Amino acid sequence: MFFRALLFSVLFVCLPAQAEVLFDDPTDDTLNEVIGGSSCDTIDSWATGDSARSQYLTGIVTLNGERRCGIERDNERSAAFLKKAWEKGAADAALTLGLMYYGGYGVEKNNEKAVELLVASEKGGHVRAQRELARAYWGEKMQDVFSEDIHKALYWFEKAGTAGDHQSGYAASRIYRGGQGVDRDERKIFYWAKRSAEAKYGDRMFSFPWLAELYEKGVGTKKSLVLAYKYYDLSGTSGVEGKSRLAKKMTQEQINKAVRLSRQWQEEHHIYFPSYRGLKHQPDGSYR
To answer: What Gene3D superfamilies has UniProt attached to this entry (predicted)?
Structure first.
């Protein structure tokens, strides 16, 4: 009943006139790069800035602290800046504030306010808020507020995955394996594994062993030992066993093609594995 009452109230959440997402990247990598690449003088200037961005950045810096600039963690001060940022329309701030209200960090714990802000952040277009909603419905977060609902979790994972979030796409792929109240759908297993491996945000290489397995077994796609070997090769150490297994079924020409595809990917993305230089994994864990 508590959750239903909350849901009814958040259906009518009012957003600031011009709600916007300041940082599209749901991993916070871009946000951390901005803070880490700014001088202490610049960081200090954010506190007196009038924009949503300045207020939000100050809120994050005071929430986490910035030792090199002598800034200590201060949850209450952080909440004050984040509230100002949200009033100015920063959907990012609504998400952080929502999590703070849920945990009682710098503000009095308030589950209703937490849900309201989480939903408001999603309505403002924040991808991470979509992922947080998915996890809540999946039973991973805020279990005392959200009732577990795998179909709603899948809806939000797919929405965030479509927006480029690796974690959400990967989760959707695993859910479609079945056994969690969702019918097995091999086409969608592969579709979301592929999207996750090509996602704009997050460590997409985490999906490579899973995608390799799907290509190897022909789940949701045409079986391809070449593409399976490619993605096992791009999986580093975790792909060694898979490559060894496939090599027994492949011709040298097929292996060479897979290696070329792997190297092409590495060159395009400027990410290199030991195998790129012809090094092989040894029993002691090293590459020679």
So the answer is: Tetratricopeptide repeat domain
What is the C-alpha to C-alpha distance for residues 46 and 61, in angstroms, rounded to an integer? 10
Q: How many CA atoms lie within 13 A of 156 on its CB side?
A: 22
- As to burial, measured by CB atoms within 10 angstroms (0-12 exposed, 13-18 middle, 19+ buried), residue 24 is middle
End-to-end CA distance of the chain: 61
Contact 228, 212 (CB under 8 A): yes
**Integer angstrom CA distances of residue 162 from 30, 89, 146, 154, 198:** 19, 24, 23, 12, 11
CATH class of 1-124: mainly alpha
- Domain layout of the chain by residue ranges: 1-124, 126-202, 208-288
Per-residue pLDDT of the chain in tens (288 residues, 90 and over written 9): 344 444 434 444 556 657 899 999 999 999 999 999 999 999 999 999 999 999 999 999 999 999 999 999 999 999 999 999 999 999 999 999 999 999 999 999 999 999 999 999 999 999 999 999 999 999 999 999 999 999 999 999 999 999 999 999 999 999 999 888 999 999 999 999 999 999 999 998 899 999 999 999 999 999 999 999 999 999 988 899 999 999 999 999 999 999 999 999 999 988 888 776 765 655 655 444
Answer whether 79's CB lies under 8 Å from 59's CB: yes
Half-sphere exposure of 118 (CA within 13 A, CB side): 29
Crossing angle for the helix pair 208-217 and 186-197, to the nearest 10 degrees:
140
